[in-house]
Write a structure and sequence with these properties.
Elements (H helix, E strand, L loop, with lengths): L3 H15 L6 H21 L4 H4 L4 H22 L5 H17 L7 E4 L4 E4 H20 L3 H26 L6 H33 L1
Antiparallel strand pairs: 1-2
Helix pairs in contact: 1-4, 2-4, 4-6, 5-6, 7-8
Length: about 210
């Protein structure tokens, strides 16, 4: 359970059942989010540590995958067809960046007097990312820089734990710098070369088929 990889494997196993687009698609996602939220509050109420119970445990991580699926649904239904999607994307990007920049001085959350509830700032970030990602993608989908960031995302994921563990023992530079440096090296020296080999073999099959 405490492994990131096992969490992903469990999701990929359930994905065909959870994200199959039909009339029950949205109710399924909402049900998963309600279950995830309730479980997190339960773990918090009985004073369990945040990790792994609220971060690495599959049932409590499932909500993140559901939010990603919900964001895709927003893209299909709204962002992909609205003429002002890029404007909404720009506003959403600025909103998310502002929250991240001022996160340390932000209040604990935003109060909604009508319902007498307090939305934690972390939950607000998730809401904004879920709601705006589809529109931000519509804004940046033709950007070469955005595509490059997407291509090195997995190398960053792979190299992050190596750099972090090394940094704890020897490093004096913030780990984000060597992490991105190693990710770029992996991208150009490994991933790009593998892609060239794959395309070369694919073209040869087409040529002789």
């Amino acid at each position: 359970f405490p492994s990131h990889d096992s969490v992903e494997i469990y999701f990929y196993f359930l994905a065909p059942f959870l994200v199959k687009i039909n009339r029950y698609y949205l109710p399924r996602l909402v049900s998963v989010l309600i279950f995830d939220t309730a479980l997190r509050y339960y773990y918090s109420a009985i004073k369990l540590p945040d990790s792994p119970w609220s971060y690495n445990l599959f049932p409590t991580a499932l909500g993140y995958f559901a939010l990603g699926s919900l964001s895709y649904l927003i893209y299909v239904k709204f962002a992909n067809s609205r003429s002002n999607a890029s404007v909404i994307g720009a506003l959403g990007f600025l909103t998310i960046c502002s929250i991240c920049i001022f996160y340390g001085v932000c209040p604990a959350g935003i109060s909604i007097p009508i319902f007498r509830i307090l939305i934690p700032i972390d939950s607000l970030v998730l809401i904004c990312v879920t709601g705006f990602t589809a529109f931000i993608f519509e804004l940046t989908k033709k950007s070469k820089f955005d595509r490059f960031l997407g291509e090195i995302a997995y190398p960053v994921y792979l190299s992050g734990w190596i750099v972090t563990n090394t940094y704890r023992q020897y490093g004096e530079v913030h780990p984000i710098v060597p992490t991105f440096t190693l990710a770029v090296v992996i991208h150009f020296l490994v991933a790009k070369q593998i892609e060239r080999i794959r395309f070369r073999k694919a073209n040869l099959r087409l040529k002789f088929s």
